Amino acid sequence: MSFAACGSSSSGDILGPDDLDPETKSVSVGAQSGALIVGTAGSVTFPVRTVKIANGSYAVTVAGLPAGVTVSGQVTIAENSGTLTLESSASTAVGSSSLTLTIDGVTSGDFTLTVSPVPRTITVGAQDGLFVVGSSEEADYPLTTTNIAAGSYPATVDNLPASITVKGSVTIDSDGKGTLTLEGMASEAGMSLGLRLRIDGAASNAFSLFAIAAKSYVTSISVAGQTLNSTNPFLVGGTASATGTLGSDGCTAYFDAANGILTLQGYNGGRIFADSTMTGRELIIMLNGNNTITTVEISTSLGHEGGGDIYIVSGSGGSLNISNSRSTTGYSRVIYSYLSPSYGDIIIDGDAAVKVDVEHTGTGGGNTAAGVFGENIHIKGAASLSVSVKVATSTYDGAAVLYFNDTVSINTTGSVYLDASDSQNNSKAVYGFADFILTRASSLTLKWNGSSPYYVGGTFIHNTADWSVVNPTAESEVLTYVGP
Question: 104: which residues sit within 8 A by CB, 6+ positions away?
Fold first, then answer.
């Protein structure tokens, strides 16, 4: 019986000792490890398995090699195993070749060598311009490409929200740069994740689209005691500046005054707020990377004194950690929007990860604390929220992790953790005057001090069949989503 055809299968699986006749010399070659790219010299390896071939180094021949590919050195066999190395030149053409290896007079079955085309990449940058519910708008996204020829290309975008479309074609210049323009009228506010541009047979990174409810934005904002506006939009080394590059050389914040967007990237500083002159205007916090706000003896860490809505969003997995500590008598409302007589909404959306730790150690009786305080509170998309509130002494209901004047809604694929268990005097995880609507979360953890995890003036709305309660105790429970 001949074993000249005993080699790897077309899928590149290497034969094991049980597949070969132990009494006859034979060889098999496994799948390619590594990549050869056209236009660039390189090397790849293949595992070699032998039977009845002595240990040692062997000169080998490989049949079927394409032009420009050669065998590198010898194949050394040790305990029936070895490695074949093939080298390519820059002139080797794209394609797949069926090869065979001959070693010590024995020839393998077919195995495959692949030379790949130069990879083409498309990187989509940050959204420039906002979509507004009920208004026709445009937004641009800068593009950086590699190995895509200059020219105009028809473009498609995966997972676009309804009524948003690609405007025209995408033109790539000789430097590989271009712009994607999206247009349309957003049907709802929020962050849409997982968009992906496709041109010339290549696909981009995932990117996001953000829409707000109203076209009224803050035009200035205080960041760690510095005012950022259209004149000085950058925070560099803790100081407002007319110039900067976000994410480098100490620049940790950039305020787009035209759209009311404060982008944080590596921020580690004090209080951020819009003042009362920004009455009813939208404040948008965009998170890149990891960011931290730390405040001491200040009631609000992230606030809007004009009572406008606060959006905390990310399309890149950005995070915000807030630490608020206070020892003087009074209230702490860490994320808060209010201008008498109205509160603003708090919306956490996209894939933002927000963590709030508030501790009030004052001994006076009038101490209360809330982690997130607004008219309506929405946790959406793939966002996650973790809030721990501690109040040492209070004559009131001491703490509410979420405090809302109207409705709280949780509908996210992320997790939500609400802990008021270390607070005194009947503290709640959720406290409000209308409905608590729980649609979805990967998990919802509620911890409280007293008789109930929540107080709502309306109804706790949720489908009990969608939730499994794990390890409930007198003052804590974890709800895991098991619905569709």
Answer: 25, 27, 50, 53, 54, 58
Say yes or no to pLDDT of 1 above 50.
no
Structure tokens at 378: 């929405």
125 and 106 inside one domain = no
In the structure encoding, which two tokens stand for residue 78, read together? Answer: 């040790």
End-of-domain residue from the set 68, 91, 116 = 116
Among 279, 280, 287, 130, which residue's Cα sits nearest to residue 212? 130
In-domain check, residue 392: yes
Q: Which two tokens stand for residue 69?
A: 């590919």
CA neighbor of 209 nearest in space, from 237, 238, 180: 180
Domains: count for the chain = 3
Task: Tell me the residue range of the domain where 238 lies.
Answer: 221-481
Neighbouring residues of 341: CB distance < 8 A, sequence distance ≥ 6: none
Cis link prior to 154 (omega < 30° from 0)? no
* Bridge partners of residue 263, in order along the sequence: 254, 286
- 394-423 pLDDT, tens per residue? 555 556 678 888 899 999 999 999 998 887
pLDDT of residue 475: 84
The answer on 201 and 302 residing in a single domain is: no
pLDDT (mean) for 187-193: 91
Could you say which DSSP state residue 442 is in? S
pLDDT at position 331 is: 83
Q: Are residues 199 and 236 in the same domain?
A: no
Which pLDDT tens digit goes with each residue over 98-155?
999 999 999 999 999 999 998 899 999 989 888 999 999 999 999 999 999 999 999 9
Both 316 and 207 in one domain: the answer is no
Co-location of 208 and 262 in the same domain? no
- Asked if 192 and 108 sit in the same domain, the reply is no
Helices (H) and strands (E) in the chain, counts: 0, 51
Two structure tokens written together for 355: 């963590």
At 357, the pLDDT band (50, 70, 90 cuts) reads very high
* pLDDT computed for residue 197 by the predictor: 98
- Do 279 and 306 lie in one domain? The reply is yes
pTM: 0.79
Tokens of 62: 């490989």
* Residue 91 CB-half CA count within 13 A: 4
Q: What long-range pairs does 124-130 form, CB within 8 A, spacing at least 24?
A: 124/180, 124/195, 124/197, 124/204, 124/205, 124/207, 125/207, 126/263, 127/207, 127/208, 127/209, 127/210, 127/315, 129/259, 130/210, 130/211, 130/212, 130/215, 130/217, 130/259, 130/261
For range 177-196, the mean pLDDT? 95
Tell me whether residue 2 is in a domain. Answer: no
* 374 within domain boundaries: yes
Residue with tokens 């209080």: 271
- Asked if 260 and 323 sit in the same domain, the reply is yes
Domain assignment present for residue 3? The answer is: no
- Kindly report the CATH number assigned to the domain that includes residue 183: 2.60.40.10
Identify the bridge partners of residue 226 per DSSP, sorted by sequence position. 223
Q: Can you read off the two tokens belonging to residue 376?
A: 């309506």
3-class secondary-structure state, position 84: strand
- Both tokens assigned to 266: 């590596």
